[in-house]
Design a protein that fits this description.
505 residues; alpha+beta; Dihydrolipoamide Transferase; 6-stranded mixed beta sheet; 19 strands
């Protein structure tokens, strides 16, 4: 028997909560087939089966919080079956016959289990490309959808969904039957016997989100009116309660209203203040940021003339979109520049430990992805070996899966450096916080047209050029400002050297 253990989803994650078992005892499981969903402080991730065989026993039920490396399931592999057959070789033929007769039943069960979930993933078009890190336009997105609850807070009632499917009359049709949604949301609709027109989508362009569906399901269960799902994602209560708006902290001002993580705060009549509850994601971010700020930060800032980069992308983006079906972003260019520069500055491709600097051979770059409830940093592994196209596909993939809440276990952990794209929000100078134990993080700010003094044979002239600020955050225990300037100078040089001969593939 092979034991399945709880994986570690990131360096700072010590435990996970079983969100949903995708297989049940008796089901056949292929190697690397999704076995269960795990919830941590920051993400929900599908955990693939490390073995092929039959799921014999579930050791941790849905909703249970389990430490890393704890046993959560038992799978009977083909090796187990072979050893069992050899052990019983001397048994009477009559006793062996029932076992042999039962054996063909497993493949039949395998076919049903393997084919069942496929329509949910294939029948729907992929999610829209995420804005920001995977988007093609580095500009402020005024229509970015906002949500008032974290993915982790809505996953808790997963075990109760079948019971909560319909205890009252379903809502009348008030939504758009053609509303867009991710395959995961469409599957959730089917699980509860609902139709898109019964859901009022609150996402960008009327997109139906997971919270919208769960709000209607809860309203059906309690008999309440499913109004304003975005501001009332939790079960209805007698007294008005503020929605979970994780990004609206007391320090947040009006400037944060356009952030993707910003929510809404409702003040009940007669009250001057409300407590905005923290989601699990915000708790995880708070803990990580508090830990990160224990490292002494230093910053280096440079302006990058991206005239050639903008021209290359403008020439290539239409043909690239037609050929690949996805937008060509500026982000893979910056990631590529960082990966090349890190090979020349290896003390930044490292982790800080109490014993010293742990340099890493592999260049695994984390790309910050803004989601409705906070910020996630999935990792692009071996970024230095990928082309710009390969990086663009990888970044788009993780960003779309972030929106669909369909991360994989290997999306997190092992990062050696981080690229943060805050420029699509319109920022020009951000002081990033290190993603410890990494010792470096670089931001790409908004590309803006500025007057630049240029030298010509006839003297200096002022020209209008597209310029991007870049800020490098440095762990001052590991490197000094001079080393940071050298790394950022190499990134700048690579980006300014981009031209028609720069290969995309």
């Amino acid at each position: 028997m092979a034991k399945v253990t709880m994986p570690q989803l990131g360096e700072s994650v010590a435990e996970g909560t079983i969100g949903k078992w995708l297989k049940q005892p008796g089901d056949h499981v292929d190697k690397y087939e999704p076995l269960l969903e795990v919830i941590t402080d920051k993400v929900n991730a599908e955990v693939p089966s490390p073995f092929e065989g039959v799921l014999k026993e579930i050791l941790a039920e849905e909703g249970a919080t389990v430490p890393n490396n704890a046993e959560i399931a038992v799978i009977e592999t083909s090796d187990d079956g072979a050893s069992g057959a050899s052990a019983e070789a001397g048994a009477p033929a009559e006793a062996a016959a029932p076992a042999e007769a039962a054996a063909p039943a497993e493949p039949a069960k395998t076919e049903v289990a393997a084919d069942g979930p496929k329509p949910a993933a294939d029948e729907e078009t992929p999610p829209e490309p995420a804005k920001g890190p995977a988007g093609s336009d580095e500009s402020v997105n005024g229509s970015t959808p906002t949500s008032s609850s974290a993915p982790t807070t809505t996953a808790a009632p997963a075990a109760e969904r079948p019971a909560a499917a319909a205890t009252a009359a379903p809502p009348t049709a008030q939504g758009d039957p053609e509303a867009r949604m991710t395959p995961a949301v469409r599957r959730l609709l089917r699980e509860h016997g609902l139709n898109p027109e019964q859901i009022q989508g609150t996402g960008g362009g009327g997109r139906i989100t997971r919270d919208d569906v769960l709000a209607v399901v809860e309203a059906i269960r309690t008999g309440a009116q499913p109004s304003a799902p975005a501001t009332a994602p939790s079960p209805a209560s007698a007294a008005p309660a503020p929605p979970a708006a994780p990004a609206a902290t007391p320090a947040a001002g009006p400037a944060r209203a356009a952030m993707p993580t910003a929510g809404t705060v409702t003040f009940p009549e007669g009250t001057d203040e409300v407590l905005v509850p923290m989601t699990q994601m915000r708790k995880g971010i708070a803990a990580q940021m508090t830990k990160a700020l224990q490292a002494p930060h230093a910053y280096v800032q440079m302006e990058v003339d991206v005239t050639r980069l903008v021209a290359v992308r403008e020439r290539a983006k239409k043909e690239y979109q037609a050929k690949e079906g996805i937008s060509l972003s500026f982000v893979p260019f910056v990631v590529k520049a960082a990966a090349e520069a890190l090979k020349r500055n290896p003390t930044f491709n490292a982790h800080w430990t109490e014993q010293g600097l742990l340099a890493k051979r592999r260049v695994n770059i984390g790309v910050a992805v803004a989601v409705d409830d906070g910020l996630l940093v999935p990792v692009i592994r071996d970024a230095d070996t990928l082309s710009i196209h390969g990086l663009n596909v990888a970044i788009t993939d993780v960003a779309n899966r972030a929106r669909a809440n369909k991360f994989r276990v290997d999306d997190f952990g092992g990062g050696t450096f981080t690229v943060d794209n805050t420029g699509y929000l319109g920022t020009n100078l951000v002081m990033p916080i290190l993603n410890v134990p990494e010792v470096g993080i670089v931001t790409m700010e908004a590309i803006t047209k500025r007057p630049v003094v240029q030298s010509t044979p006839d003297g200096d002239v002022i020209a209008i050029r597209p310029v991007m600020n870049m800020v490098l955050g440095v762990d001052h225990r590991a490197n000094d400002g001079a080393g940071g300037a050298a790394l950022l100078r190499d990134i700048k040089a690579w980006l300014e050297a981009v031209g028609p001969d720069t290969p995309i593939y």
